[in-house]
Structures are given as C-alpha cells and as structure tokens.
Amino acid sequence: MADRTGPRRTGLGALLRDKAPFLRWSTIRFALGGRSVLRTGQVGDGREEAVRQHVLDTATPGDPDSVLAAIDDFARNRSILMNVGDEKGLLLDAAVRRAKPLLALELGAYCGYSAVRTGRLLPPRGRLVSVEASAANAAIATDVIAHAGLADRVEVVVGKIGDGGATMRRLAVDHGFASSAVDFVFLDHLKTAYLPDLLALLTVNWLHPGSIVVADNVRIPGAPRYLRYMRGQEGKTWRTVEHRTHVEYQSLLHDLVLESEYLG
C-alpha cells in the first residue's frame, strides 16, 4: 500500500511527502474516501489495518515511543493517517504534562496514536478513556495500545457522546466519570461534534476549574463553531492559547490547535 509517488529516497519523493502531501496517492485516495470516513471512520483502502500490522511487525513491544515512531513512519512514507501527528503531538505532550491528569478523556481514538502519546505521560495513578465511534478502529487502537504496554492505564470505549446519553452513562458507571473528575480532554473526532460534546461534558459537571481541553484540526478540516465559542468565552469561562501549527505530516498547510483551561 505504498504511495505511488516514486522512490522514497528521491528529492521529488521528499518534496511530495513534506511540502506537497496532497499530491501523494494516499492523500488523493483519502480525499476520495471522504464518504467512507464519515460513514465508517476509515478511509476504505485498508490503511488502518495496515498501520496496526506495521506497529506489531516493527515496533518494540512495551515501548510507547517505538510505537509512535512506527506510526509516524507509516504516515510519512506509506499512507497519510488521521491522527495528530508528530509536530502537533508535541503540543499534546506539553498539555498532558501541564495537566498531570488522573482521569483523562479522549474523543476520537482512530488507530490509537494520540492515546499512546497521552498514556505514556500519565502520572502513576492516571487513566485515559478514549471514546471511538467505529468498532473497527477501536479494535485496532486497543491492539496498538496493548503493544505499547499501556493497556493497564488506557482503555477504548466504543460509542460517542452525542448518542442520547448511552455512552456517558457507561463512562459514569463503568469508568468513574463523575462531577469534577475529568482533568484533561482531547478532541480529535468529528469536527462538528466538538462544541456540542464539550457542552455535554459541562452540563454534567465532569470538568473542574483547571481542567484542560485540547482540540486538534480547528482550522483544517475546521471547527468554526468551537473556535467562535472559545473566543467568545475568553476570560469568562475559558482561557485559551491558540497554537498555530501545520496539518499533520507536512509543512505547507497550516492548522490550529486550541488549548483551553476551564475557569469554572
């Protein structure tokens, strides 16, 4: 499933990977698979299962950084993936270190990349629950997390916040989500769900003053309602830093990551 852009070692190949990824076959195939992504959470060409196998075949068991490196290698050299990536991943790392979460929530596991990034930085008693709408993606993410040696602190739950309350009830009953219990949230799922899902968390009071929420892809593909909300609430209920960065695995297209502290 390698990109059809020529040999990896050529200058043209490097340009396509880093400066013009939209000319790569895997990116074109991703664009063509847009309906499949919305319907199933996967591009439809098998790249998600392929990255799982790549991790199992090449990454060192029990080594989260080796797992992350394997996924980054796959995304740069074989097929673009819908995860936060290495550049924006450093922003996620820094936010997790600041939050020191005992209970963290991720919305959008995909293949487990950001769950591994987050899980490896949790404090000794910290836990991460990642909510993923696609059962197929959840199974892949669970295998990747286990290979990284993080199954004891990271769990994937199939569901979504906007399903009428079923998933939130499972989080409360099975995973200890309760008033003021959530220290950190990472949003990287359906962009139109960012704001309603955040408001749902606020409605049940799961966040507390000092909770940190990080949102990826606020510029591309874009979460305009979420961005307007955070800007409108600046200094009132939220304090936000807007990190200007790039879309994952390239340096041409700019993106925006929001890191917001809840003021209560």
TrEMBL record:
Keywords: Methyltransferase, S-adenosyl-L-methionine, Transferase
InterPro entries hit by this protein: SAM-dependent_MTases_sf, SAM_O-MeTrfase
Stated name of the protein: O-methyltransferase
GO molecular function terms noted in the UniProt entry: methyltransferase activity
Record-listed E.C. numbers: 2.1.1.-
GO biological process: methylation
Superkingdom of this protein's organism: Bacteria
